Amino acid sequence: MTIHTVVLIPGDGIGPEVMNATRKILEAAGSPLQFVERHAGVAALDRGGDDVLPADTVAAVREHHVALKGPCTTPIGKGFFSVNVALRKKLHLYAAVRPVRNLPGVKTRFEDVDLVIIRENTEGLYSGIENQITDDVIVSMKVATASACHRIAHWAFRYATHRRRKKISVFHKANIMKMSDGLFLNQARQVYENDYPNIAYDEVIIDAGMMKLVQDPTKFDIILCENLYGDIVSDLCAGLVGGLGVTPGANIGDEDAVFEAVHGSAPDIAGQDKANPLALIMSSAMMLNHIADTRHDNTARVCGQKIRDAYNKALEDGQKTRDLGGELSTSAFAKAVIERL
Ligand code: NAI
Questions:
Q1: Which terminal residue of the chain, N or C, has fewer Cβ atoms less than 10 Å from its own Cβ?
Q2: 232 with 120, same domain?
Q3: 86 and 177 share a domain?
Q4: Predicted pLDDT at 61
Q5: Residue 190 belongs to what domain range?
């Protein structure tokens, strides 16, 4: 059996708790993985470092190409830059992929939700270019480059083709941001017309799109967005299927990939063994699929499916954490999954 090295970055807040639960499940499932642990965020400072994104953490991901990451705290309105955004930029992880599906035993307003959000991960308003023009005026720059817009559109259509998805909807605001969102939209349209005419394609102004999503999410398949819209749409979609505790994600580039839940470090419940580890567990199953696809290792795919079957069974049996209306702690939910592997 080939053993793949994965970098574990526990992160801040609930990160170490959900990472610990996920690691135990990966080990109990006999996954073809070994781990090296590196730190980022406040956790890196707490360990005596002077950088929230230490060079050896970035170097480890570059060396091993795959990481599983917990959330990192970003101070609001002051303090250090976002570690998450910096990591995505440094490693050129330009595609964020966030599948949103109903889960067994998790009752929500809608059934048959099966969406994938694909978010451009390197530019837009997340470029962090903000200038103070006068005492009272701040200007934030939204960056759109033809190359990055083209790259993410291509990636989304290729993903749709491989996964046999039917339709891509681009959420945009090109009626107002005619140049930046206009470029994003034009690139997506060109990729569709020139290279992927067999996949259905539509363009939706994002405000109306959000309304349509909460009225009937089953009308959508893949949603393609620039960076900030993708962030917001992801959390709304998480709310359609049970919340942030059940929404996994991946940040993918041409060389490296970092898998992480959509949720943040949840300081309100950190350190209390209350967090739902499922989103990170699901991200780890996505990671096993990625390893299977990129390194042609079927053992990884089988293991990912084994983990999926076990958490679905646990949910069907009513084993749930508090965010889903159950009573289990983080560690008790992990135990329930392990018992069903
Ligand atoms: P958050 O996602 O951490 O929490 C929002 C709400 O959802 C809270 O009530 C929290 O308790 C709940 N929640 C989140 N994950 C949960 C889980 N696994 N189980 C049960 N409940 C869960 O978002 P918030 O409060 O806006 O951000 C907190 C910090 O996380 C900030 O510093 C933010 O910058 C950072 N953040 C980091 C991300 C990352 O590392 N990728 C993503 C989003 C936020």
A1: N
A2: yes
A3: no
A4: 98
A5: 109-241
pLDDT confidence bin for 77, thresholds 50/70/90: confident
50 is catalytic: no
Other CB atoms within 10 A of residue 194 CB:
8
| 115 and 205 fall within a common domain | yes
Residue nearest to atom 42 of ligand 1 (CA): 264
72, 265, 320, 324, best to mutate for ligand 1 pocket (most atoms within 8 Å of CB) = 265
User: Ligand 1 center to residue 272 CA distance, Å?
Assistant: 15
- Check if 229 is active-site: no
232: Cα within 13 Å, side-chain hemisphere:
13
**CATH code for the domain of 225:** 3.40.718.10
Extract the runs of DSSP E, i.e. beta strands, from 238-311: 250-252, 257-260
Q: Give me ligand 1 centre to Cα 233, in Å.
A: 15
| Ligand 1 geometric centre to CA of 251 (Å) | 17
Indicate whether 199 and 297 sit together in one domain.
no
pLDDT at residue 149 above 90?
Answer: yes
Give residue ranges with CB within 6 A of ligand 1. 14, 71-74, 84, 244-245, 260, 263-269, 275-276, 279, 323
- Is it the case that residue 80 has pLDDT exceeding 80? no
Question: How many domains is the chain built from?
Answer: 2
The predicted pLDDT at position 280 comes to 98
Could you say which of 126, 159, 196, 201 is catalytic? Answer: 126
The CA-to-CA distance between both ends of the chain, in Å, stands at 19
Q: Whose CA is nearest to atom 36 of ligand 1?
A: 264
Residue pLDDT, tens place only, 93-115: 999 999 999 999 999 999 999 99
Looking at the fold, whether 195 and 149 belong to one and the same domain comes out as yes
Between the alpha carbon of residue 99 and those of residues 57, 67, 308, 331, the distances in Å are: 26, 18, 14, 24
Nearby residues of 151 by Cβ (< 8 Å), 6 or more positions away: 94
Given this model, what pLDDT does residue 52 score? 94
| Residue 78: per-residue pLDDT | 79
Collapsing DSSP to helix, strand or coil, 20 comes out as helix
Same domain, 124 and 37: no
Ligand 1: centre distance to CA 183 (Å): 31
The number of the ligand 1 atom at minimal distance from the alpha carbon of 14 is 18
Give the tens place of pLDDT for each residue, 151-185.
999 999 999 999 999 999 999 999 999 999 999 99
Three-state SS for 276? Answer: coil
**127 and 72 together in one domain:** no
